[in-house]
Amino acid sequence: MKIVGKFTASKWLALFVGVLLTLSCDPEECFNPKNRCSWYVKNQTTDTLQILTNFYINIPQILPPDSAVHVYGVGISRDEEIDDMFGWILDAVVIDETFTVSDTKGEELKMWTESQRNEFGRQFFNETYWKKQKWEEGKYVFHKWIFELLPEDIK
C-alpha cells in the first residue's frame, strides 16, 4: 500500500468516506435516527422453545410459554423512511435470513427462510403475519412488529 504523507491509502479512504457522510446527511440523524424499528417474537404455545436467527443475534435464545424476546432492531433515518419499512429492513440484508424454532433439546421444529416469504402458508418473513404497533415519543417514531409463534407453527 502506498503511503501518502503520514496516512496510508486506507486512512485517506476512511477520511474521505467520513467527510462524504457528514456532507450527504445530517450527522445527528445518521447517529441517532428518528425511526426505531424492533422485531419481537412471542411464544403462544405451551412449550418452552429455543429460537435462532442468522440475521441479528446468532445464539440460541430460550423462549418460555407466554413470553416475548427481541430478535432484531434497527434505526432508520427520515431520509430512508418509506411506507414499507418491514420489507425495506429485510431487503437491506444481503444473506438469506433464517428463523429456526427448536425444542429445548435442540431438535428443529420449524425453519423459515426469507427467500420463501411469499410462499403459501404462515411465513415468518411475511409482514401479513405480524402485528404492528407504531407510536411517537418526542422526536422518535417507534415501529414494533410482533410475530406470535402458534402451536400449529411447531407441529
Summarize, please.
The chain is built from three helices and ten strands; from the N terminus they run ββααββββαββββ. The protein is α+β, with helices and mostly antiparallel strands and 155 residues long.
Overall number of strands: 10
- Average pLDDT rating: 81
Question: Approximately how much helix is present in the residues?
Answer: 10-25%
> What multimeric state do the chains show?
single chain
- Distinct helical segment count: 3
**Proportion in β-strands:** 35-45%
The radius of gyration computed from the alpha-carbon positions, rounded to a whole number of angstroms, is 20 Å
Please describe the biggest sheet, giving its number of strands, its sense, and whether it closes into a barrel: 4 strands, mixed
How far apart the termini lie comes to 57 Å
State the shape: globular
Low-confidence parts: 1-5, 20-24
SSE sequence, one letter per element:
EEHHEEEEHEEEE
Q: Widest sheet: strand order? A: 6-3-10-9
The class by helix and strand makeup works out as alpha+beta
